[in-house]
Amino acid sequence: MPTPSPASPPPPRGPLDGILVIDLSRVLAGPFCSLLLARLGARVIKVEMPGTGDDARAYGPFREGRSLYFESVNHGKESIALDLKKPADRETFEGLLAIADVLVENFRPGTMDRLGYGADSLRSRFPRLVYGEVSGFGATGPYRERAAYDIIAQALGGIIGLTGHEGQPSVRVGVSIGDMVAGLYLTVGILGALYRRDRAGTGTGEGTAVDVALLDCQVALLEADMTAYLSTGRVPGKRGSAHPSIAPFQIFRAKDGEICIAAGNDGLFRGLVKALGKESLADEPRFAKNVARHEHLAALVAEMESLLADRGVREWLSILDAAGIPCAPIQSVADVAAHPQVLARNMIQSIPTRDGGVSHVVGNPIKYADFPDLPPPGAAPDLDADRSAILALLAAGRAGRP
Q1: Distance (Å, rounded) from C-alpha 383 to C-alpha 249?
Q2: Is 359 helix (H, G, I), strand (E, B) or coil?
Q3: Does the active-site annotation cover 243?
């Protein structure tokens, strides 16, 4: 009887398959970074405080006692509870660092140094380790020791100063853009450090520290507004939904609701006003060119809303879409979850929980030609749920694969 061939190893889950990430972070910025690394195929082990774990485990909304906030950025990871002030747990943690590729943390600067695990200390002991740290204000500067949350970064970074309508109370951006953008930038920094370490032929074989601050990332998002201010001295204010330099590029009132229209060049504007039934607007000196339209924005909005008042949003969407004009309704989260394009791109995924239930999460927006768009390997872990598997990993003395 022929000897059966050995089973083929499972295909790689993504380009970071084989990379081991130790995640000491909590709440959002750091966990969002490690979530992205996990969705690219890395194995992510969350190291959490015994008893309480990640602060986000206590944040609502809840379903059957599980935090959906925590689930949203921690699915596909593993958990082990370690107290880094206890010798035995420190030994386990250091064993993980010895086989890890990346450490992610978002403590206030100085905390890891006091624990004996600062970037400089770890670099001498684990030279291949990429050390990713994200904090409110970064590892340097006069604010380095201050605490910060997303809304603080949005306020100090100028984003809130641009958001909302002039004369109305200030509002934060509706999602935690301060934390999430910092997590994105930290991910990019970590990928760059891994490439530097491992690139064929010229890799250094050494890790490095990546220092990302929420405030820096908000400043980076100011794009043309900051450049224009530095050159002209003009301070931009709140502009509602309007674009700072393109018109029409905002939300307008129609007969029965709001519609978003973006005519990003003169040709699109001519097509737009033709579809609206008044092509002659494109020949008026006030509106013929984008610069003129922006200078006469209030008059342009009045003209357009007068025309849009004749029909409802759905009818206008059909007319404008047929004319090739970028347009959209203002969707709720429920609308987004049911949208055919969102579903076609696998952006809503269902994964089994360890108790036999099902969890629903947002999919991976990064699509690779050479890797299937797989769901995460599991739902968010219960605190310390993977201790046995992680200790077995240490005993084996190798990172292994999930």
Answers
A1: 47
A2: strand
A3: yes
- Are the CB atoms for 222 and 178 separated by under 8 Å? no
Q: What is the pLDDT of residues 252-285, one digit of tens each?
A: 999 999 999 999 999 999 999 999 999 999 999 9
What is the Cα–Cα distance from 207 to 198, expressed in whole angstroms?
9
- Are 142 and 115 in contact by the 8 Å Cβ rule? The answer is no
Which of 75, 165, 243, 360 is the catalytic position? 243
Q: Share the mean pLDDT of the chain.
A: 93
The alpha carbons of the chain give a radius of gyration, in whole angstroms, of 25
| Dihedral sign of CA atoms 281, 283, 286, 287 in order | positive
Per this entry, what is the length of the chain? Answer: 402
Question: What is the rounded CA–CA span in Å between residue 227 and residue 221?
Answer: 11
Over residues 305-348, the pLDDT tens digits come to 999 999 999 999 999 999 999 999 999 999 999 999 999 999 99
CA distances from 57 to 36, 61, 73, 277, 288 (A): 19, 10, 11, 54, 55
Residue pair 202/177 in contact (Cβ under 8 Å)? The answer is no
pLDDT at 399 over 60: no
Give the pLDDT band of residue 1 (cuts 50, 70, 90): very low
Residues 6+ apart with CB under 8 A from 269: 248, 263, 282, 287, 290, 293
Distance CA 43, CA 399 (A): 9
Structure token pair of residue 283: 């020949």
The crossing angle, in degrees rounded to 10, of helices 266-276 and 297-308 is: 30
In which residue are the tokens 């059966």 written? 4
pLDDT, tens digit (0-9, with 9 covering 90-100), for 95-113: 999 999 999 999 999 999 9
Cβ partners under 8 Å of residue 169, min gap 6: none
Distance of CA 104 to CAs 40, 101, 187, Å?
16, 10, 10
CA dihedral over 233, 235, 241, 242, signed as positive or negative:
negative
Spatial separation of the C-alpha atoms in residues 42 and 23, rounded to whole Å:
12
Measured between alpha carbons, how far is 340 from 201 in angstroms, rounded to an integer?
A: 45
Q: What is the SS3 assignment for 151?
A: helix
Q: How many CB atoms lie within 10 A of CB 180?
A: 19
> Residue ranges of the alpha helices (H) in 260-358?
266-276, 290-295, 297-308, 313-322, 333-338, 340-344
